[in-house]
Write a structure and sequence with these properties.
With about 120 residues, this protein is an alpha+beta fold. It is about 15% helix and about 40% strand.
């Protein structure tokens, strides 16, 4: 029969291994990046055009005189009135270029579109 010390050490080692396997390795967590977006007639100005994979928080402010929205990767802000702001949280899991645009009829055609590069 094994001693209590060996059983206890084995149990502690097994528990530690289980906990460590459930916790992601340091540095492997996805980044969270904030991008400010200025909307106006008829363009967007982003604070960054390239971001790392992970969560991106878009802080969109309408500096124009008519309402705009901001759509990227299947997510969209509500319609943002003049002088107001909205926040959009999007998770990017793949490195590629993601198009963005204003979905108000005619706005994208007038220039309210572009692409964000995710690395």
């Amino acid at each position: 029969m094994p001693s209590k010390k060996i059983v206890s050490a084995t149990l502690v080692t097994a528990l530690a291994a289980g906990v460590l396997s459930a916790v992601p390795a340091l540095g492997s967590r996805d980044a969270t990046t904030t991008v400010t977006v200025r909307a106006s007639e008829f363009k967007f100005v982003l604070s960054r055009s390239r971001v790392p994979k992970g969560t991106v928080i878009f802080k969109v402010t309408n500096r124009g005189s008519v309402a705009h929205d901001f759509k990227i990767n299947g997510k969209k802000t509500p319609l943002i009135k003049r002088g107001k702001s909205a926040t959009l949280r999007v998770v990017f899991t793949r490195a590629k270029k993601y198009p963005y645009l204003c979905t108000v009829p005619g706005h994208a055609a007038a220039g309210m579109k572009g692409s964000l590069t995710v690395r």
